[in-house]
Amino acid sequence: MLKSNPQKLTEALAARFASPTRSSRLTVVVGRWLGISFTICFLTGLFSHGLQNPPSWMFFPTSPSWIYQLTQGLHVTAGIAAIPLLLAKLWSVYPELLKWPPVKSLVHGLERASIALFIGSSLVQLTTGLINTYKWYPWPFPFRETHYWLAWVIWGSLLLHVAVKLPVIASHWRARSTEEVAGGAADGGVPGVEKSSGAASPGRWSRRAFLTGVAAATGTVVLTTAGQSFSWLAPLNFFAPRKMGTGPQGVPVNRTAAAANVTELANSAGWSLQVRHGATSREFSLAQLKALPQHTHELPIACVEGWSQTAAWRGVRVRDLVNAVGAPAGSTLRFTSLEPEGAYRLMTMAPEYARDEKTLVALELNGSVLDLDHGYPARIIAPGRPGVLQTKWLQSMEVL
Ligand SMILES: Nc1nc2c(c(=O)[nH]1)N[C@H]1C(S)=C(S)[C@@H](COP(=O)(O)O)O[C@H]1N2
Ligand SMILES: [Mo]
User: Fold this and answer.
1) Phi–psi pair at 398, nearest 5 degrees
2) Any idea what the CATH number is for the domain that residue 360 is in?
3) Among residues 94, 96, 297, 382, which is most buried (max CB within 10 A)?
4) How far apart are the C-alpha atoms of 321 and 377, rounded to whole Å?
5) Same domain assignment for residues 281 and 140
6) Residues 321-334: pLDDT tens digits?
């Protein structure tokens, strides 16, 4: 009987799924939290992408030196928070997926398509992003480009979704408005559900209990992982992959010298840093670098994958080396690493960093000679840059 009557089926389903945890008000509340976390991810992600693939108008803040530690810590933390929020929102709306007919009008079709795109791309984005922070890359596509383009797809479909749902969002924005729009089947809610004021019927969760549960789950995943980026939460960091204070010299390592295949070259007694500017070229042995004025700065390594750690770095100012080959202070520089191949071999540095007094060719970390895994004999450390641009095992510096 039901099979032959889709309308009846819809009503039966609506009754089956009716619950205070499925109401437009709840969906709007969770949607708001999700919107905030996605916006944080999007803006901090654009910033991070701009620092690594700079468009012509890119700005490069070097102060405060922890700016990237903050933005990328927020990026990864907000992304982790979005996972329970997205699941809660899906829970609160999934009976909508079973409604009949699947497409009622052009606007309705557009709305459903944008939601399908939004849900699909968000799930891929959040799972691959999370997996990435655990340094596991089980997919064949390049992570960063995919992550970047998916962000635009998500943002576009989210704007469309919000635009289509604006009347519902507006009428459920404030808590009091729920009762005023009671009986909200007309707004696309599950019929009958709006009449409940959020109290639980027997065996069902109340809206408040559900929201409290979502908030607790979100708070828990944030508090037990954000310590990888924010030192005051480090004692609670149970689940994030990297712990502060671990690793050689008390700083975590992303890629070891052995993995980068540089052990022999880095340990070579004949190592020197080549510094070039047009026809001028100079070579600095390790002893010569040590003989130059040394400077110490407290600076963070802030990995794109979210972990960060501040340490004391000591070495030669990059701007002194620029000066040593007679190049202007506002030069763009290119560094190479001893690494024979790969994305980390070449690094370009904008003039903002090159002229900053805190940008160092570091020879020491936390009071002793750089560990091989931290870039011995010499590495770059600059304020406010993504960890991936803090090149280890330097080979040369060229003024462009
Ligand atoms: N040559 C080279 N430099 C590199 C890397 C690398 O693999 N090769 N890893 C980068 C990344 S992703 C980070 S987060 C930092 C980590 O520095 P650490 O291992 O000293 O903590 O180094 C950066 N510099
Ligand atoms: Mo990194």
Assistant:
1) -125, 135
2) 3.90.420.10
3) 382
4) 16
5) no
6) 999 999 999 999 99
The reply to whether 243 falls in a domain is no
Is 260's C-beta closer than 6 angstroms to any atom of ligand 1? yes
Q: What average pLDDT does the segment 18-34 reach?
A: 86
The DSSP line for 49-82 is: HHHHS--TT-----SSTTHHHHHHHHHHHHHHHH
| Average pLDDT value for residue range 118-127 | 96
Classify residue 359: in a domain, yes or no.
Answer: yes
Q: How far apart are CA 361 and CA 321, in angstroms?
A: 9
Q: Residue 353: which region, alpha, beta or left (left: phi > 0; alpha: psi -120 to 50)?
A: alpha
Residue nearest atom 23 of ligand 1, based on CA coordinates = 388
Average pLDDT score, the chain: 90
Span from the CA of 203 to the centroid of ligand 2 (angstroms): 48
One-letter amino acid for residue 221 of the chain: V
pTM score, two decimals? 0.91
Is residue 9 scored above 90 in pLDDT? no
Instruction: Compute the CA torsion angle 316, 320, 326, 330 (nearest 10 deg).
Output: 120
- How far, in Å, from the CA of 391 to the mean position of ligand 1? 6
Pick from 248, 242, 247: nearest CA to 229: 242
Q: Which domain holds residue 30?
A: 6-236
Q: Is 105 helix (H, G, I), strand (E, B) or coil?
A: coil
Per-chain residues with Cβ under 5 A from ion ligand 2: 254, 303, 387-388
The alpha helices in the chain, defined as continuous H runs, are 6-17, 24-52, 67-93, 106-133, 143-171, 177-180, 207-223, 257-260, 263-267, 286-291, 318-324, 351-354
> Which ligand approaches the C-alpha of residue 309 most closely?
1
